[in-house]
Every structure is written in structure tokens, then in C-alpha cells.
Amino acid sequence: MRKESNLKTPHYWEHRDRLRQRFDTDARVTTYELLELLLFLARPRCDTKPVAKALLETFRSLNGVLAAPKDRLKEVSGVGNMSVHVLKLVLAIVNSVLSERIVKRPVFTVWQHVIEYLQTNMGYLAEEHFRILFLDNKNQLIANELQQKGTINQSPLYPREVMRRALELGAAAIILVHNHPSGDPTPSQEDVRATRAIQDLGGKLGVAVHDHIVIGKHTHRSMRSMGLI
Fold first, then answer.
1. Fewer CB under 10 Å: which end of the chain, C or N?
2. What are the pLDDT digits (tens) for 190-201?
3. Are strands 173-179 and 208-215 parallel, antiparallel or unpaired?
4. Residue 153's pLDDT band (boundaries 50, 70, 90)?
5. What is the pLDDT of residue 74?
6. Beta-bridge mates of residue 129
7. Residue ranges per domain, the chain?
8. pLDDT tens for each residue of 82-111
9. How far apart are CA 137 and CA 166, in angstroms?
10. Greater model confidence, 44 or 190
């Protein structure tokens, strides 16, 4: 006669069921609980509560977790390839949704959506990225492209490359964007110098430079609003 199994139900199963029920009934869940729910998909047989809390403690916010480099995520105990895959998939979905809100619309009528997209996409990057928003003669977004990646504190701007791409796309104007991995979005003297060089060349070619946005972790700066260009 076989003995009855002594295996016990893992302690976190009931917690998972309760958390799913709260989420499904639109009850309030905390940020770390949202992350827990997400990690259920990657770790179906593990307790994800301590992993979610460790990720938030390390990267300070849900946005910080989603945008963190893959190798940095894996440094957190309990985070493997599947967890990283799920987190990056969610980030890609978020960026796609935010991008849809601004494509083929006059950017200055959806400016807050533009900033939300840029902040989410670039605010937590570990190295400088230089992005260009290309606009038509109605200031509608016709392309949004990553131009270059730099080191931790430098992404060189090449005026001829910027204008060559603008002319290829038939853009009437552009908005330059780059991030500061330090988190401080204050433009540097080099940022201002490079922007003015692009602006000067654009003036000769009929391509306006509307602004240069510098993205930090929690905020941004507009060179146009600051009177720098």
C-alpha cells in the first residue's frame, strides 16, 4: 500500500491566488505586487515576492526595473533569462503604446505624450543615446530614430549625418533628444555647441531645429525653453 505523500503546498501559492484575485477585481495593488504578478509568468514555481522587492530596492522604481540593462538585472538574486525576457517584453509594449500616441500627430499638441515616451524610453539608460524626431511641414512626427549610442557620458553629434537623414526623409524640422545617464538633465556646454552647429547647417538646408531635449531620470530640460538655442 502506498504511503500518502507528505509534500506540502508551497506557502506562497495561497498568496499568489489572493493577489491574482485582488488584481482581477480591480482592488488596489502596490508597485511591488504588480512586479510580483509579472514575475509569476517567468517563475511559475517560485516565490516572486522577495525578487520583486529586491528589484525595486536596487533600481528604485518600476520604470527603473524595466529599463535596467540585462546584465544588471541578472545581478539580482532570482532573476534569470526568462525574467529578463518578460521585463523587456513589457518595456517594449509600453514604448509601443506610448509611441502610438504621438505618431503622425502634430507634436506640440501632444507634447506631454512626447515627453512621457522619451522619459520612459531614455530616462534610465546606462549610456548616452542620441535620438531624432523628424517632423513634416505640419510638425507631425514622420520618423523617430535612434541616431547614435555613446559611452556613459558622451554621444557625439555629427551635423552632416543629422541633416543627411533629415533630407532623406523629407523632414521640414527636427527635434534632437539625448539622455544624461547621471540623471541630471542640465545641458553641457558641448551639448549647446553641437546643437548650434546642427542648427546652423539646418538653416542653410531649410531644416529647422525646433528644440533639443535632454532627458534625466525623473525630469527633462528643453534648450529652447532655456533660451540656449
1. N
2. 999 999 999 999
3. parallel
4. low
5. 95
6. 149
7. 13-96, 104-222
8. 999 999 999 999 989 988 888 888 898 999
9. 12
10. 190
> How far apart are the C-alpha atoms of 214 and 200, rounded to whole Å?
20
Cell numbers representing residue 81 in the block: 533569462
Amino acid, single-letter form, for residue 212:
H
Count of beta carbons in the 10 Å neighbourhood of residue 109: 12
Grid cell, residue 214, equals: 535632454
Residue with the three cell numbers 500627430: 105
Residue the block writes with cell 520618423: 143
Please state, in angstroms and rounded to a whole number, the distance separating the CA atoms of residues 123 and 128: 10
Residue at grid coordinates 505618431:
103
CATH pick for 104-222 out of 3.30.70.600, 3.30.2000.10, 3.40.140.10, 3.90.228.20: 3.40.140.10
Q: Which amino acid is at 152?
A: I
Give me the sheet containing 129-135, strands edge to edge: 141-149, 129-135, 173-179, 208-215, 220-222
Amino acid letter, residue 185: P
Residue 227 backbone dihedrals phi, psi, to 5 degrees? 75, 25
